[in-house]
Amino acid sequence: MTFVTHLESALDGTHFDAGRVLTVHQGRPLWVRYDLSRVRAAVKPADLHARESSLWRYRELLPLPLASAPVTLGEGMTPLLPCPRLGAELGFAHLLVKDESQLPTGSFKSRGMAAAVSMARHFGLKRLAIPTAGNAGGALAAYAARAGIETFVFMPEDTPAINPLEAHLCGARVFLVNGLITDCGRIVREGVDRAGWFDMSTLKEPYRLEGKKTMGLELAEQLGWMLPDVILYPTGGGTGLIGMWKAFQELRELGWLKSDKLPRLVSCQSDGCAPIVRAYDAGQRFAEPFANARTLASGLRVPAAVGDCMMLDAIRASGGCAIAGKEERIIPWMQRVARREGIAICPETAVCFDCLEQLRHHGKVLPHEQVVVFNTGAAQKYPEVLAVELPRIDKDQPVVYESLL
């Protein structure tokens, strides 16, 4: 049994049978649609308390049929951490970080791949391939290994070293490409017929989005079925932001939210790769590819996103905005957040904090508002960014303790 009714084109609303393996329609993604009246009759918010503390607690709002076992690595609910010291410095009374780094593969990509690989196994797919900026490749490799599915991963050659190593460790065939993620995407796309794999690119299949939307479901539950005033989210491919907006729409239609007011979504990008920001500023629905994309935040180095219109629609519908953080502020923000709150944020989230400071300065986010910043990955997965020369002590020499202070 499933509560899914059909899949729907994000471009023109065309409906498709949910029982088939599908990718995109006219080059644009598909939405998974549910019979929310049946969901409302089947489950109430109070019923969730007795369920496992994982994204699978929202089973009626996920595509995998109830009779099918999910592919899981124990992806539990991630903590929502108050940041009083940092908040006070920035001028906010209610600043929170939702820490996705505590998921099984160290990033929010675990959510999408848990759902996508579960559906791939449900449909009997035997070979998967993905172009990735890093974390998605590692997550796919891990969940595909769990499912016993052959996997091919294509990454830019300057991807953080941890990412290809973790994918290789899980048995994926890993290839480094002397180009950007768009070049990796072309290789995967052209190999669909010749190599016989299924393309697991961002939004090229409809189910990663469903896993990502559980961030929004969790956030609402953790806040007592209320939502914050503002959400800042680092956007490369954008599935997290798109998925959360979808979750909020579904929760409102279900009647689970205690207020109809939805958060303003802020799409945060680096000024070294900001196609969504440029499109937002220009009033466009589709983003032009960003030339010469460069950023330490490898997950944001996506010069062209297939879900650009979905991101921009969600941002505008929410009353939010798209803004670029300064590339040179990434490392200082990683240090500042860790030193004030003990939260080791990834470079992508560091961009969010630079954006938040800008918004506060311009009065776009107010001191009394509740603000949630998503930490989408673990800082430890970016050793090249964190590299530092530390002082050394010779064990054979007396220690001058005063010099250490």
Key phrases:
405 residues; alpha/beta; Rossmann fold; six-stranded mixed sheet; 14 helices; 36% helix; globular
Characterize the structure shown.
By secondary structure, the chain is of the alpha/beta class. It has a domain at 80-106 and 208-386: 3-Layer(aba) Sandwich (Rossmann fold), CATH 3.40.50.1100. Helices cover 36% and strands 16% of the residues. It has 14 helices and 13 strands. It has a six-stranded mixed β-sheet with strand order 4-5-13-10-11-12, sandwiched between helices. Strands 8-7-6-9 form a four-stranded parallel β-sheet, sandwiched between helices. Helix 9 crosses helix 11 (308-318) and helix 12 packs across helix 13. It is globular and about 70 Å long. The model has no long low-confidence stretch (mean pLDDT 96).
3D shape: globular
Question: Which architecture of the domain at 80-106 and 208-386 does the CATH hierarchy give at level 2?
Answer: 3-Layer(aba) Sandwich
CATH C-level class of the domain at 80-106 and 208-386 is Alpha Beta
Structural class: alpha/beta
Discrete helix count: 14
Largest beta-sheet details: 6 strands, mixed
Portion in beta strands: 15-25%
Give me the count of strands.
13
| Gap from first CA to last CA | 64 Å
As for the CATH topology of the domain at 80-106 and 208-386, it is: Rossmann fold
N-to-C SSE series? EEEHEHEHEHEHEHEHHEHEHHEHHEH
Tell me the radius of gyration. Answer: 21 Å
Strand order of the largest sheet: 4-5-13-10-11-12
pLDDT averaged over residues = 96
Tell me roughly what share of residues is in helical segments. 25-40%
**Low-pLDDT residue spans:** none
